[in-house]
Amino acid sequence: MTEPVSQKDQQALVGRLMAACGGSYSPGTRRKFFISGPQWAASYQGQALFHAPTRSPVQPAEVIERLAEIGIGWWSTHDTDIVPTDQLMTGRQDEILDGIGIALKRNGVKCSMVTGETFYDPVWAGSPAGEQPEVRAYAKRRLQNVVEMGHKLGAQFIVYWPGTLGYQFQGVVDEARMLERYAEEINAACEKDLAVSRAAATSPMRHCLEAKPFEPQAELLLPTTDAMLTFINSGLLAHPEMVGVNPEYLHELMWGSAPRAALARALLAGKLWHFDVNDGYRLKHDVDIAVGLVNPLDWLNVLMLLRAHDYHGPFNLDFKPPRTTSNYGVFRVSFPSAVDRFITLWEIAGEAISDPIITEATKALEGGAGSVDPTDANVIFEANKELWTLHELIAHRLVQILLGLHRGRTFSG
Ligand code: 3MF
Ligand code: MG
Ligand code: MG
Hints:
By secondary structure, the protein is of the alpha/beta class. The chain is 49% helix and 8% strand. An eight-stranded parallel sheet has the order 8-6-4-3-2-1-10-9. A two-stranded antiparallel ribbon has the order 5-7. It is globular. The model has no long low-confidence stretch (mean pLDDT 97). The structure holds 3-O-methylfructose in linear form and magnesium ion (MG) (2 copies).
């Protein structure tokens, strides 16, 4: 018989077991990483189409304070996470932003990124770039307002997940037309940014497009990071140099891609500016599990790639604390454990990059077998076939490093 734990003792139990897990970094160490905590992740109440909320809302000032305690030095937000839609672009917006500015300063947290909500409000039901000129005019105003909010909060990045940019029924909208219209909205935001930064003698923000393959429309016009890169280079954007991408790990995984390869393509294009980190499963819905809980080996590989290519942008914790986690657990378990897994994987990635066995094996593979007849496939194959065994050896070594077995540990020993 296991003993019941009464409700009043449950937080203490969670706190004690969390401490017993160990492996946590100090807030000072955590703060050295460019890790941002989204307002929407911290205040997510657990609701969804088939889910009633399980947690109470958490106001921005409290989120900022909790993130600071954990050692998350950056905060990101949608416009409507902090200002109700009907109060956007009013004097109330300024008051709210002033209050948030004070909370950020008091807690030593910075706003890294702002983003416009173009998926939730009924006005976006037909997409943010629909047929009606008034919807599009409103979308432009909203995005331009996000630019203003970003400048006010000192954000360096603005992210656009277009949300409902797509359709339920084929043939109702002209895809090319809708994309042209969406480009006009991004152009309006970039132009606003140029005007505001010129007037304030500050730098413009980095505008980052985020793709998602499924939901919230049946069909989406920009479903992948590659589609976003094509859109940036389509000739439709007035300032393509101001626009990059914000891939999300799970969004790329969801459509069956290798997130690492998608990131590599964005890196090569010089457009990998911002990165939403989380985890989940292939070909499933957007479960937004916290980083490293599902695919730690793949995450190790992703971070090796980013370290090798000097990615210096933010790591935005775009996950959803699960419905089974309490308000207490969000800040006691979800956020600190996500940050600590991330940092651990980051450090393991550094170790893997400089591991002598992987280094020697990689160099050997790149050296090849030496001078053989370059016209004879069979001779080339025969000359190299023992080298290629190193592929599997490297994979084994990476798993060893991930599991700590490279330190001489055998599991039963
Ligand atoms: C949806 C998302 C979004 C975006 C956010 C930033 C709510 O699956 O990932 O998070 O990241 O809107 O623009
Ligand atoms: Mg995201
Ligand atoms: Mg997502």
